[in-house]
Amino acid sequence: MKLLYLFITLLIFSCTSVPKDYLVNNNTCNFNDSIFKITKDEMFFDVTRLKGRELIVVNNEFFKNRFYSYEDGEITNKKTNKKLDIGKWIDYYSDGRIKSVTFIYLNGKKEINKETYYDKQGNITKVIDYEKGYNICWAEAIEIVKQLAKRDIKKYKIDSFYLSRIDLNEFPNSNPEWRVSMKGNEAYNEKDRKNYIIDGVTGKLNRTYTVGLIYDSLDD
């Protein structure tokens, strides 16, 4: 029988300062990108376009746009910006009127920005701000780690960044923090995974820790 052991090593505590340019920078946050906009056309979907369970409108190296339907008739439109690793998930009522929109950072499957709900008249009924209490946005947290991990990024050909955060809507008494880890070449991916904890208000590096997985074979 194989047993899985998980060990965590706390490496450092730090009060590392962050370049001022990283703080509240909409260019870095990409909030002006079209993926974060809700257009007039997206407020309604012509359900007659969906002949089967799925409709792929476009799928190239930069962008994917597809619709698919559920058994209850409701429809989801998943738009993916492959360069930013951002998904915009739009849900529609069975008659094609918008129901909700959610933005996802796909490496970590973490909601970012705001999730918005609509009634059947198109009025906003509820907004969940997933970055409430954060001055540092999702992209700034990644850029900070890119500066801190320059040597590893170059040495191990890091090409992906994984992101999670503390949701202050769910845990209002917690400190806002981003957790960022990386994926690179085979040599890096075989190492214990290093996690960077970035203060969601100041952008400072609070600490790092590593998580390692050890497999061992034991008899029952």
From TrEMBL:
Which PROSITE patterns does this entry report, sorted A to Z?
A: PROKAR_LIPOPROTEIN
Q: Where is the signal peptide?
A: 1-19
Q: Which UniProt keywords apply?
A: Signal
Could you tell me the superkingdom of the organism this chain comes from?
A: Bacteria
Name the UniProt record assigns to this protein: Uncharacterized protein
Q: Taxonomic classification, please?
A: Bacteria, Pseudomonadati, Bacteroidota, Flavobacteriia, Flavobacteriales
